[in-house]
Amino acid sequence: MTDPVGKLPSELDQLPDRDPEETAEWAASLDAVTKAAGPHRAAYLMRRSLQHAEGAGLALPKLLETDYVNSIPTAAEPAFDGDLEMESRITAWNRWNAAAMVTRGAKHGVGGHIATFASAAWLYETGFNHFFRGKEGDGSGDQLYIQGHASPGIYARAFLDGRLTEQHLDNFRQEAGGEGLPSYPHPRRLPWLWEFPTVSMGLGPLSAIYQARFNRYLANRSIKDTSNSHVWAFLGDGEMDEPESTAALALAAREQLDNLTFVINCNLQRLDGPVRANFRVVQELEGAFRGAGWNVVKTLWGNAWDELFQLDTQGALLRRLREVPDAQFQTYATRDVAYIREHFFGAEPALVELGKLLSDAKIAECFYTSRGGHEARKVYAAYKAAIEHKGAPTVILAQTVKGYTLGKGFESKNANHQMKKLSIDEFKGMRELLGLPIPDSAFQDGQVPYGHPGADSPEVRYLQERRAALGGPAPARRVHASAPLPQPEERAFKALYKGSGKQEMATTMAFVRLVKDLMRDKETGKRWVPIVPDEARTFGMESLFPSAGIYSPLGQTYEPVDRDQLMYYKEAKDGQILNEGITEAGAMADFIAAATSYATHGETMIPFYIFYSMFGWQRTGDQMWQLADQLGKGFIVGATAGRTTLTGEGLQHADGHSHLIAATNPASLNYDPAFAYEIAVIVKDGLRRMYGPDAEDVFYYLTVYNEPKPQPAMPEGVEEGIVKGLYRFKEGTPAKADAPRLQLLASGTAIHWALEAQELLAADWGVTADVWSATSWGELRRDALESDEALLRGEQRVPYVTQALAGAPGPVLAVSDWMRQVPDQISQWVEQDWSSLGTDGFGLSDTREAARRHFGVDARSIVVASLAQLAKRGEVPASAVKEARERYGL
C-alpha cells in the first residue's frame, strides 16, 4: 500500500511531525542539490550530515556500509613506533623461509600452504613487533588465534628468533620423533608454541569471542586480573562463511568486549576461487559487523591510491570501486595496464579523464601491489585504533593480494591455495624483489636454501628486543607450575554413596546435586564453572540460580518476574553460572576457554557443561575435538541420555549414538553410569586424574538419565570396577546346582531392565543370570587396546574385561540404551559367547515402555534373547524361545 504521491509508507509516518513546513524545506533542499550537482553530491552531503549528527551525539541509526576506502585516512595515521626498514627486512626473511620450508617439504610429498601467509605477512609482523603481549610480562599476555594456513610464516619467524632450527623447518608436517612441526596450530603436537588449534575453520572466531568473554568472567569473579590481555583472531574472508564464524558477533558487542579484535585478511580468495565472485565481500562483512554492533576499521588501499582519491573530484572512482565485483578486481591484478585502462577506467567519461592523469607505472602499482594489508603503517594505524577503541570489539578488514611477493605465477591465481612449491627461478625472482643477500651458490643440487641474517644480526636483535619489551616470545603456550587442586571433602560424595532409600532420583539430578555440594567446597568451590545452554530447569539446576548467580557483565538491571520465589532468576556481575541461551556451540566454546584456563591464565578451573544428550557430540563434535587438541579438562555431561528415556520427544531428541562418536576421541573418557554412587566415584576419580598431582590432559564425558529410579547404596569394594568400566552388581542365585546360567552386562538405565530380566529368567525359566554394571564400554576397550599394544612389545598383559569375566559361566548378553555397536566395542576380548541388544535405528515418540519394546531392549526382550543364546548352546530347549515370545507378546 502506498500514499497518494506514490511513496512507500515508513516508520516515520507513525510519528507526529510538529513542523511539516520545516520538513518540506529540508526535502526541497535535498531535491535542489540533486538537480544542480547530481545524486552523488546529494548522497555525499547526506553522509556528511549523518556523520556530523553522530559526532554531536544525536541518536540515529548507523549506516551499515561506508565507501570502499580506508577508515583511517593517510593524514590521520599515527606516528609509526618502530624502524620500518628493519621490520621490512625481517618480514622479507620470514616470507623467504616460509616459502622455502613448504617447497622443501614438497619433495617429501608433505606440501603445505604458501599463499595465505604471503598475503598476511605484514598483518602478523606488525602485531609481533608492536602489539602482541607475551606471557613473561604482567598478566597472562594476549591470546593469538593464528589462521591455520599461515602457520609456515609463524614457524619462519620462530626460526629467525632462534626458537626453531633448520632441522625443525625440514620436519614440517612430519612427526620426526617429536622434533617435527605440525601442519597447523596444534597444542597437543607442539605444546610450547601453539595455544589454540584453528584450522577447523569457523571454530577460531567463535572460540576467540568466548575466550575474550571468559577473560572478563575471570576478572569479574576476582579470580584473575585479565585487564592486560587482548584476544586477536586472524581469519580469512572465506572462513567467514562458516556459520560459527559469525554466530556470536552480537554477544561480543552486547557484552562490550573491547578486549577483542578480529583481523580478517580480505585477499578476496577462498580455496578454489573468489570468495564473492559477483559481489564485494568487504562491504558484506562491514555490514554484518556494523549491524552486530562492532567497531569496523577498513584497511583497503596502500599509499599509492592516495593520489587517485585526491584526483577523484566527481566521486567517479568511489562509484566504480563500489560496483566492481571481487572476481573482476582479482582479474585486474593479473592483467596488463592496457586492460585496466579499458575495463576499469573506461567505465565512464570521468574515469577516462582520471586515467589520463595517471602513468602506467602508477596504475600498475595501485592495482598489482598497493593494498592496505601490505603496508606496515596502515596496519599499525588499524591495530592502534582497535586497542584504543572502548565499548565494543573491533574488526579490521585488511585487503591483500593472495600470494603477494611470490611472483606472477602465484599472485591472485585461483589455484594458489593448492600450489605447494616455487621453482628455483621463481625463488631467485623473489630474492630480487625482497632484496635478500642470498647468492646463487646457495642453491645446491636444485634445493632452495633457508636464509638467516645471523643470530647476532641487527634484524634478530631488533626482533628480540621488541618481543622482550612486549613480554616475551609469541605465540607461546605456558603451563604455569601450580599446586594440584586439593581433593574436595569426602562428605559431598558420601551423600550419593549411601543411596536414596525409597525416594526415586534420576541420575541427572544426582549429578547436579553432587556438583552443587562440590561448589560449596571452601578450597575448590569457586573454581567450578557450570555451563548450560538454556535448559537449566530441565536438568534441575534452578536451585543454583540464587546461590551461584548467572554471570552477566551488567549484573541485573531489571527486577526478575520471579523475584518473590525461592529459586528466582538471579544475574550477577560475579555470577558463576554461564547460561548461554540456545547455543550449544557457544556453550562448548565457553567450556573450552574454562577447560584450558590452567594454561592460558595459570588459573585452574573445573568446568562442567550439561546439555541435552542428543545435542552434544552430534551437534558440536568438531568442538569436542578442538577441546582435545587444546588439552582441555573438565566434565561434559549428556543429560536426558539414551534413545528411550526421553518420552514423547521422538527422533530429534533420542540419542543412541553419542557414546559411539565419543569413542573416536582419544582424550575423552566416556562413562555411562547406572547409579548415583557410580557418578560420585567417577567424578572423584576425574578430579584426581585431571587436577591431581599427576594431572592428565583428558576430559570426562558422562551420560545421565532423566528417569527417576531408587538409588541403591554402594556395595563394598566396587570402586575399582566402576572406574575401570565393569563390576558384578548382583549375582544370581541358582534354583538348582545345574541351572542354566548367563551373564547380563548393562550400562546406564538399562541396568534396571537387566535386573527385571534376571528375576523373570529365574522365576519363569529356571535360568540364573548375573547382572554386571558396565560403567564404561569405552574404558574397557581402551584398556584392551593397550593390552594388545603391550603384546606387540613382548609384554604379557590380560585386558581387564577378560580378567573380570574370567570363569563366569554361560554366554554374555550386553544391553544398553545405545546402538549395539557401543557394547560391541569390547566383544573381541570377551572369551564367552557374545551377543548384544541395542537401540539401533531412529527414535520415536511414545512411552518409555513402548519405545523399549519397539527396540527390543525391555526386560522381556532380554529374557527372550537370553533363552535364544542358551538354546544355541543346548542348555535350554529351542521351544522355550518360541514359548517365551508368545508369553510376553513379542
Automatic annotation (TrEMBL):
Its EC number is 1.2.4.1. Residues 486-708 form the Pyruvate dehydrogenase E1 component middle domain. The keyword Repressor does not apply. Its cofactor is thiamine diphosphate; Mg(2+). Residues 1-21 are annotated as: Disordered. It is an enzyme of class 1 (oxidoreductase). Keywords: Magnesium, Metal-binding, Oxidoreductase, Pyruvate, Thiamine pyrophosphate. Residues 147-300 form the Transketolase N-terminal domain. Residues 725-858 form the Transketolase-like C-terminal domain. Gene3D superfamilies: 3.40.50.920, 3.40.50.970. GO terms for molecular function: magnesium ion binding; pyruvate dehydrogenase (acetyl-transferring) activity. It catalyses: N(6)-[(R)-lipoyl]-L-lysyl-[protein] + pyruvate + H(+) = N(6)-[(R)-S(8)-acetyldihydrolipoyl]-L-lysyl-[protein] + CO2. Mg(2+) binds at residues 237, 267, 269. Component of the pyruvate dehydrogenase (PDH) complex, that catalyzes the overall conversion of pyruvate to acetyl-CoA and CO(2). PANTHER family: PYRUVATE DEHYDROGENASE E1 COMPONENT. This is Pyruvate dehydrogenase E1 component.
